[in-house]
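Chain A, query sequence.
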Amino acid sequence: MALAQAGYEVLLIGRTLPHSPPLPDQPYAQKRLSCFFHRGKAFYLEYNLRLLFFLLVHRFDAVCAADLDTLAPAFTAARLKGKPVVYDAHEYFTEVPELIGRPHTRRVWELLARAVVPRVDRAYTVGPALAEILSARYGVPFEAVRNVPVRKLNEAPSAKAPAPVVLYQGALNRGRGLEQAIDAMSSSPALPFGWPERAIYPKPLGNAFDWPGFKIRSVFWEGYRRTTCPEKPQKPGSDLTCWKPKA
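Chain A, predicted structure.
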């Protein structure tokens, strides 16, 4: 969004899922690649090959890889065309909970990172602490670019205090504190807990809501769009901060 508003011609590339809603209108171009596989090693291989072919047959002046799982095709296409490649590390990829306990898969991603990340032209991540860690690990300077919404000054929170709601906003991935939030809710069963309806969370969270007297209310509708999320939590409240040993 910021690049498009600054006058750059931007193309955002993603993938199509069976339940993907229509793309909303944006001030930049968008492209979805269709894959036969949707998960696992077969998906990563297929998507990377499709992305590489797409980049090779289309012109660009620079390519930005969103995280490590798109860096290999972006780097290859950029080098073959003599164009700069930018690495957007929005998490510590090789330390995410999904890879902990899977040493062989984790080793493959780490080998890829050590082979490619030191050779990118620019790199950035979500904050200065992670930027320092990644810079030291891969020997390339990482800048910090925070992904936060711009507050609309003309939209003040409602003066009427509503009933308190615990709101979890974001993808339901491991390591984001959702289990701890649910555990904490066991001492306040009267508070509703909001989360997206279209979400799949891996075990052992599946039965976390089977507690007597624990009231759950979903504040998002089926098939919610990410563009609508910032409209919901514009009310006074307190933040939930969770420090975990893993990324």
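The first strand starts at residue 11 and ends at 16. Helices lie at 2-5, 40-57, 71-81, 103-116, 128-138, 178-185.
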